[in-house]
Amino acid sequence: MSGSSHPKKIVQAGPATVRMLFEGNAYGLGYFQRRYAWERLQVEKLMLDLVKKFEREWQQNHQVADAMTYEPYFLGSVITYRRADGKYLADGQQRVVTLLLLLIRLYHLTSSREDTRDQSAHLRTLILGGDPVRRQFTITDIGYRACFNDLLNGKEFGAYGGPDVVRVFQAYQDVTQFCLQNLPGEALPNFVTWLLERVSLVELDAGDPDRALEMFVAMNDRGVRLTPLDLLKQYLLSDALPDPGVHDAGWQSMQATLDAVAKDATLDFVRGVLRAHYFHLHPDDGDGITLDEAPHEWLVRHEDAIWPRYKTGDHATLFTEELQPLYPFYADLLRWAAAPVDGHLGTWFNTSNGIIRQFDLTMAAIRSGDDEDVMHRKATLVANFLDLFVVTRGLVAENYGQAEIDELVGELRPAVRESRTVHDLAVALGKAAAEWYPRFGGVLTLRYRERGNRPFVVYFLARLTAWLESRTGRGDRAVHMLSHIDGRGHEVEHLFTSRHAEYRDPLPDGDAYSRQRSRLGALVLLEGSDNASLGALRLADKLSAYRSHYLLAGSLHPDSYGRGEVRFRRFREDENLDFRAYDETVPIPEFVESRSRLFKAMAEKIWAADRLGLILPTEPAAASRARPRRRSRVTLAELIREGMLAPETGLAGMRNRKMFRATLLGDGRIRTASGEPFPSPTAAAEAVLDGKSANGWTFWRIGEGKETLAEVRTRYERRR
User: Fold this and answer.
1) What does the DSSP assignment read for 156-188?
2) Which residues pair with 205 in a beta bridge?
3) 218 partner at 20 to 30 Å CA-CA among 298, 343, 440, 518?
4) Which pLDDT score is estimated for 565?
């Protein structure tokens, strides 16, 4: 017979409140435990979680005894074991040390008040492991003892030794900053009682060190951690009726379909639907729980708003009634974005312009009851609308990246969500787009900067060039021009050489010449290899080469207006466009101006509202003239001048549970931790995020509070 005649007891588990965890206990730290390593983010999250849970229960008229009936809060589990010299922690050191720091902070707060002296004495006893005579702290590790002693007695930082002990001291400063944040002072006695009696853990008694190590390894190192999508599935389907597994096959089918099209597509789809359907709920609670990073936790935080009269089975209906009917259409959207499809080129164009997340507005417009034709028409409308946004912003040298798209979508989502039909959607989008059309005047003033706006200029010229090719029977070449599949792809060609000496007589001023040659009207798009072969030739010497290329360049040659060019002639007549061959006797500024006006007229036709499916507002001319001009965007400098923000205000932003800090300067710039000032919130946010797309107005929050810069701006705009 193998084994001992006295076999080990199985692992014992029991509940423990914070008071029970500390009262009469002193814990050593197991040799296999890592040292204290919690950073500011982890400490802040625990403090804010505790405070938020408490403030949901506390009311000003409550007595201290009422705290014993507040909703409890569960902190997880700790593993303990025993040796001859006492009790040890095998797992849970980070939480227990942080709780000890919290008790020390509460001790100082309660000791300064007459009405909490008894609580103060009790806290001191717990801090010292139930034995104030021996002064043995609940965590007995000798390395931490001097630090704990100085903190308890209010002394300044000392030479404590290793970085883990320094981190303990810094963690106490973090606890001090976030403890009882935003709670009035009269809540302190109730908070102390609730923390000690209603915040709990589960203590797993491993018995001896060997089994403690075995449990530690099993709980920390084995297996694959659950992903956010796994947790989301578990949350939604766990209350499905009659059986939590009844929808598992449907979920697996959704995940297999979407993830086969694009990596992480299922999670992106769920986020998009939640953003579209619950846009009235803030995507970031300011405590690290964001819709993008932890959708299941975000749903938990907002379940009272999403399911105000919750009954078993409601969570699962979010899958069966909102996600399941829509995911096949979302898979189509992903396919259209990845590869050009006739009828949905707008979606592919948006992808080519770097819009990574373009479907939030589409998902707001789509309803689970829409048939396939309606879904496709709505998707086309939204894609064309976003393409118009990109073009009209680019023509006036304004950013059109993901941050600007997100801000636009945030503003329009409510109106789009209310649009039930395709017509309703066309009206809502047309109303938003109406004020963009004057921006086509930017064709006359925009200049090409190779290291600045090259992607936009290539896109704009490609769309004009391709439209002309298509309308004259040569085929739509837009995809070819923008795919960059042939060697060097397509490149911007200056009609006029960079050598000013070639044109000194007609335009003697070198700076003026440079400005003219970089205007849109002085450019065409050519195949990369063809562009290089033309070198530094004068325009008159390049006309023959242009004749064999795209018609937008070839139209500069007089032979393009000959008797055999019937389709080109009919196109000019049908569209009433003023194409002209190049004439060396015409001064360069005059020629470039006429060519620029031609490009403007072409662009206004390509992106005309009726071609895009948009319905612009109709109103009498007098009313239109009387309508006040919309003010430009509010700036941080304006908010500072109006007293909405103060100079040297601290800002905080969070991404992937990492906190970033910055300072608002008096001139409206934002200085990040690197010391570099940035002119806008978005520029500062993208800098700290290593270039990743971000909307700085919603990324940065004021100090340690919840309000974003965007919310401050909204308050100001409403007041104004």
Assistant:
1) PP----SHHHHHHHHHHHHHHHHTTTT--GGGH
2) 12, 80
3) 298
4) 85
**What's the rounded Cα separation, in Å, for the pair 556 and 323?**
54
Phi, psi of 609 (to 5 degrees): -55, -45
Specify the pLDDT at position 299: 87
pLDDT digits (tens, 9 = 90+) for 109-144: 999 888 898 999 999 999 987 554 555 788 888 778
Please say whether the beta carbons of 37 and 164 come within 8 A. yes
Radius of gyration of the CA atoms of the chain, in A: 33
Query: Could you tell me which of 79, 95, 98, 73 has the C-alpha nearest to residue 17?
Result: 73
Residue 298 structure tokens: 């975000």
531/450 Cα distance (integer angstroms): 15
More confident position, 34 or 536: 536
Q: What are phi and psi of 494, to 5 degrees?
A: -75, 130
SS3 state at 619: coil
E strand or H helix that includes residue 63: none
Residue 223 above 50 pLDDT?
Answer: no
Across 283-297, 342-356, 590-604, the highest mean pLDDT is recorded for 590-604
- For the beta carbon of residue 431, count every other beta carbon within 10 angstroms: 15
Nearest Cα residue to 434 out of 682, 690, 615, 664 = 615
What is the model's pLDDT at position 619? 62
- The CB density around residue 167, as the number of other CB atoms within 10 Å, is 21
DSSP structure string for 268-305: HHHHHHHHHH-TTS-SB-SSS-BTTT-HHHHHHHHHHH
Please check whether residue 544 is in contact with residue 568, taking contact to mean a CB–CB distance below 8 angstroms: no
- Tell me how far apart the alpha carbons of residues 73 and 52 are, in angstroms, rounded to a whole number: 11
DSSP summary character for residue 586: S
3-state secondary structure 466-487: HHHHHHCCCCCCHHHHHHCCCC
Helices (H), 283-438: 295-306, 314-317, 327-338, 345-352, 360-365, 372-395, 402-418, 422-433
Q: How far apart are CA 441 and CA 392, in angstroms?
A: 9
Beta bridge partners of 88: 28, 81
| 490-494 and 523-527 strand pairing | antiparallel
Q: Is the separation of the CB atoms in 424 and 377 below 8 Å?
A: no
Q: Does an H or E element contain 80, and which?
A: strand 73-83
Q: How would you label 356-386 residue by residue, b for 16+ Cβ within 10 Å and e otherwise? A: eebbbbbbbbbbeebeeebbbbbbbbbbbbb
Written as six digits, the tokens of 519 are 């205007």
pTM of structure: 0.61
Encoded tokens for 201? 């853990």
Q: Mean pLDDT score of the chain, rounded to an integer?
A: 84
Q: Report the alpha-carbon distance of residue 233 to residue 438 in Å, rounded.
A: 48
Per-residue CA distances from 418 to 306, 373, 414, 430, 714 (Å):
18, 19, 6, 15, 22
Residue 640 Cα distances to 134, 333, 646, 647, angstroms:
56, 42, 6, 7
In this prediction, residue 2 carries a pLDDT of: 43
Q: CA–CA separation, 683 vs 702, rounded Å?
A: 17
What is the maximum span of the chain, computed from C-alpha positions, in angstroms? 112
698: which DSSP letter?
H
Helix (H, G, I), strand (E, B) or coil at 490: strand
pLDDT digit string, tens, across residues 365-388 = 998 889 999 999 999 999 999 999
CA dihedral 637, 643, 647, 651 (to 10 degrees): -90
CB 28 within 8 A of CB 88: yes
H helices, E strands: number in the chain: 33, 12
